[in-house]
Structures are given as structure tokens and as C-alpha cells.
Write a structure and sequence with these properties.
Elements: H1 2-30, H2 32-53, H3 56-66, H4 71-103, H5 109-116, H6 118-135, H7 139-192, H8 204-235, H9 238-251, H10 253-274, H11 278-305, H12 307-315, H13 326-348, H14 352-377, H15 379-405, H16 411-428, H17 437-455, H18 461-483
């Protein structure tokens, strides 16, 4: 699990780096208003794509590692269901695109939505293959697929925008990147699922029964990520949308990095629970929670402390108004990340219905808070609404996990991590930086933080053994590949 998580986190880092490179390029090329236009189109597209990325793909992650059914039949049924479902969602979005445009009082959006909509089918198939790779625990292939998708999208977007296509080029490049990911997934499918085995074939109804609540849950979960920018577009200016988009791309760093953890956690935890290995499941959850706090707490502190220099370094002084949004939104999305991991544990425990109800409660809170706070507090109010909703979901999921598995973060571990983070914060507080200097400050902050962790004995011998095991395994694989 540790090795798989490392591989997927490396893939997610490539995905994140290419995504930020694309956003920085677009911000400097398009300007705040056109970037805001691109941001709201992408936000609506991503929300619609939530209908297709987590139902059947998540079922692949759940049923393939359980090994109760013929793997080929699971994948065959999944491809049929996902292909038909993606086409239905695409057709509905084409019909509803003018309705979305009227809601935002911008008739230009209809054509842009139609151009962007092609990604619905391609991206849905890409996520199906990601789910298959995760379910088969082929984490190296999954990391490769993610990397190919990210780099393909970056290259396509940059090329088309440079050729003068601007926002339309960025939207076309978005689905060309998804196509690259699909081609890699098809190659894996051709080499791995050639013959039936002795296990029974899965029924279509079994997949659907598991996938239906996951689809609704996913729609609500990701609504929390993008409802805020929709209200910013409705009540504020296009420039405000551009600033909020910039703050959101930075604030989502923790989510983009740790989403890889859910891909290893769901199949691994599903297998442990299916085999009644509850102690192993409990230990896995404890390790995951400690790992999350270990890296999320300093991320929040550093980004909040250096919001202005980070914006200036990556996006220029034009986007400095985003600096007041960034600290609030970073904290909100860290809580959202914890909420997402908690619901992943619920899904592994065959509780998708409970995950759905918790997400629904958080969604209602998010909607109400945006309606009240965005007109009153502007873009910062939208970030506050996301934070409140994420906190509600995080607490709800955490209560179930503690009662079900008696697993949570050790209080003394949390105190030691917090103390180390506070020391790093105080040590670097007098260090004022303008733009490029924030990179050196980040290195200094990290060094002080890890030194403090050693001093308070939060980093212990078992942690170093895990690191040694991960890199020993990676070296062995590299050596084996070199001899082929």
C-alpha cells in the first residue's frame, strides 16, 4: 500500500505540476476576465463529469480486488455500462447548455459548453480505465496513465492557445489530453483480460446496485468543490471569477496530491474488510490519518503565511487580489480532503448509502452558506461556505469511522505534529520574501519542520523502515526492468 501510494502520488504530482503550468500559462496569456470565463466553463464541465467518473469506475475498484467474480466479466460489464451512460450524460448536457448560459446571464457560454462537452465521453472512459487499474492494484500502470493524460493535456492546450484559439483551444486541448489517457488504458486492457477464469460472472444488477449511490454521492461531493465559483460568477464580476479560479488552483494542492491515496486505500481496505481482517483495516486507517495530518497541517500553515508571494511568483501582481481568498480556501480544501478520505473508507466498508447521506447534508450546508455569504462577503464568503460544508462532512465521516473501527489519530501524535509546525512557522515568520524567494523559504520551512519532528520524536524507526522498504522495492523493480 505504501509503495502504491508513493507511485500514485508521484503521478498526481506530475498531474498537479502540469495543471499548474497550464493555469499559469493561461493566466498570463488570457488575462483575468478570459481566465474567469475558462474557469467557470471548466467548473461546470467538471461538475457534469462527476456523473460519469465515480459510479462504475468505483465499482471496478471495489469488485476486482474482492476476487469473488470473473475479472473479465466485471470489466466487460463495466465498459458497456460506462460507455452507454457517458453518451446519455453527454446528450443531456448538450440540451441543457443554453439553460446554464442563461443562469449565468452570458449567452456566449452555450457554444463554449458544446465544445467542452466532448470531454464528457472521453474523460468518462479514461476514469473507467483508472478504476480498473486501481482495482487490479496495477499502481505503476495507473501512475503512467495519469502522467500521460496530464502531459498530453498540457501540450495540447499550450499548442492550440499559442496558435490563436484562446479559450476554445484550451477547451479542445482538455479533451485531447483525456484521449491520451484512454489510449494508455486500452493498451492495458488488451494485455490483461484475455481469458475467463473459474469464478462466476458478475451480474449487471450487482454493479448497478453498488454504483447508483456512488454516482449521487460523487455529484454532491464535487459540488462542494465547484459550487462556490458558480456563486462567485452569479453575484460578482468576471475578474472576481478569475481571481477565485487562481486561488482555487493553489488551494487544491493538498487534494490533488492526496487523491492518489484514495486509489490505494479503497481496494486495499475493501480486501481487508472482505476477509474479516479488522485489525489490519484498523491499522491501515490509523496510518492513513497520521500520514494526512503529518503533511496537511504544514501545507495549510505555509500557504496561508505566504499567500501573496506565491500568487506573485506564479501569476504576477495582476492576480494579487486572490491572496486574501487563498488562506481561507486552503483550509477549506484541506478539510474537504479529510472528508473525501473519510467517505472513501465508508465506501470500502460497503456503506455508500451512508456516505451519500453525509455528503447530502454537507451539500445543503454549502448551498445555504453560499446564498448567504457570497452576496455579503464576496469571494471570501464562497471560500468560507466551502470550509463550513467540508467541516460538517469531515466530522460526520469521522464519527462513523471512530465508532466502526475504533481508529483515529493519536492525540499525542497530533500535538507533536502541531508543535513541530508551530516551530517552523515561528522560525520562518521574520523571513519576508517577494516572489522567487518563497521557494527558498519553503525549503527552510520544510527543513525546520522535519528537524522539529525528529526532536519531538514523532518520526521514529518504523517510519524510516517504511521509507527504506518503499525505495528498496522501487530500486529492485528498476533493476529488474533494466535486465529485461
Amino acid at each position: 500500500m505504501a509503495r502504491g501510494t508513493l507511485l500514485l502520488m508521484m503521478g498526481q504530482m506530475v498531474f498537479m505540476a502540469s495543471g499548474y503550468a497550464m493555469n499559469i500559462f493561461l493566466a498570463r496569456r488570457l488575462g483575468p476576465e478570459e481566465l474567469g470565463l475558462f474557469g467557470i466553463i471548466l467548473a461546470i464541465l467538471v461538475w457534469v463529469e462527476l456523473f460519469v467518473i465515480n459510479g462504475v469506475p468505483t465499482a471496478m475498484q471495489h469488485f476486482l480486488p474482492e476476487a469473488k467474480y470473473d475479472a473479465r466479466s466485471i470489466v466487460k460489464q463495466g465498459v458497456k455500462l460506462q460507455g452507454l451512460y457517458c453518451l446519455i450524460v453527454w446528450a443531456l448536457f448538450l440540451a441543457l447548455a443554453p439553460v446554464f448560459a442563461r443562469f449565468f446571464r452570458d449567452d456566449r457560454l452555450t457554444v463554449f459548453f458544446w465544445i467542452a462537452s466532448i470531454d464528457i465521453v472521453i474523460y468518462g472512459l479514461y476514469w473507467l480505465f483508472v478504476g480498473i487499474l486501481s482495482g487490479r492494484r496495477k499502481f505503476a500502470w495507473q501512475a503512467l496513465t495519469t502522467t500521460a493524460y496530464a502531459l498530453g493535456k498540457l501540450a495540447a492546450v499550450v499548442a492550440l492557445v499559442v496558435l490563436g484559439m484562446d479559450v476554445k483551444g484550451a477547451l479542445i486541448g482538455n479533451w485531447l489530453g483525456s484521449l491520451v489517457g484512454v489510449l494508455i488504458g486500452l493498451r492495458f486492457w488488451q494485455t490483461q483480460f484475455n481469458a475467463h477464469d473459474s469464478r462466476p460472472a458478475i451480474e449487471r444488477g450487482t454493479l448497478l446496485a453498488y454504483a447508483r449511490p456512488i454516482i449521487v454521492y460523487t455529484i454532491i461531493m464535487n459540488l462542494l468543490l465547484y459550487l462556490d465559483i458558480a456563486f462567485v460568477k452569479k453575484y460578482l464580476t468576471d475578474a472576481d471569477v478569475g481571481f477565485y479560479h487562481v486561488a482555487g488552483t493553489l488551494a487544491r494542492i493538498p487534494y490533488f496530491i492526496f487523491i492518489g491515496l484514495s486509489f490505494t486505500l479503497l481496494p486495499t481496505l475493501s480486501r481487508a474488510i472482505a476477509q474479516n481482517e479488522h485489525e489490519r483495516a484498523r491499522q491501515q486507517i490509523r496510518q492513513v490519518m497520521r500520514f494526512l495530518f503529518f503533511l496537511l497541517v504544514p501545507t495549510v500553515v505555509f500557504i496561508s503565511q505566504n499567500a501573496g508571494p506565491l500568487i506573485r511568483l506564479l501569476y504576477s501582481d495582476t492576480y494579487l487580489p486572490a491572496a486574501r481568498i487563498l488562506p481561507v480556501l486552503t483550509l477549506a480544501l484541506v478539510m474537504y480532503t479529510l472528508f473525501y478520505i473519510a467517505t472513501t473508507i465508508l465506501n470500502a466498508d460497503k456503506k455508500p448509502g451512508l456516505a451519500l447521506w453525509i455528503a447530502a447534508g454537507a451539500g445543503i450546508v454549502d448551498l445555504a452558506a453560499n446564498l448567504i455569504w457570497v452576496p455579503r462577503y464576496g469571494a471570501v464568503g464562497a471560500a468560507m461556505a466551502t470550509g463550513l460544508a467540508s467541516a460538517v462532512g469531515m466530522v460526520g465521516g469521522g464519527i462513523y469511522i471512530f465508532r466502526r473501527f475504533h481508529a483515529g489519530l493519536n492525540l499525542f501524535s497530533l500535538l507533536r505534529i502541531s508543535a513541530a509546525c508551530l516551530l517552523a512557522y515561528l522560525a520562518t515568520l521574520p523571513w519576508n520574501v517577494y516572489a522567487v524567494g518563497v521557494l527558498l523559504k519553503a525549503a527552510g520551512f520544510t527543513a525546520v519542520y522535519f528537524l522539529a519532528l525528529i526532536l519531538v520524536r514523532e518520526l521514529n524507526a518504523s517510519d524510516w523502515q517504511v521509507v527504506k522498504h518503499i525505495f528498496a522495492g522501487a530500486s529492485a523493480r528498476a533493476g529488474a526492468s533494466a535486465t529485461r
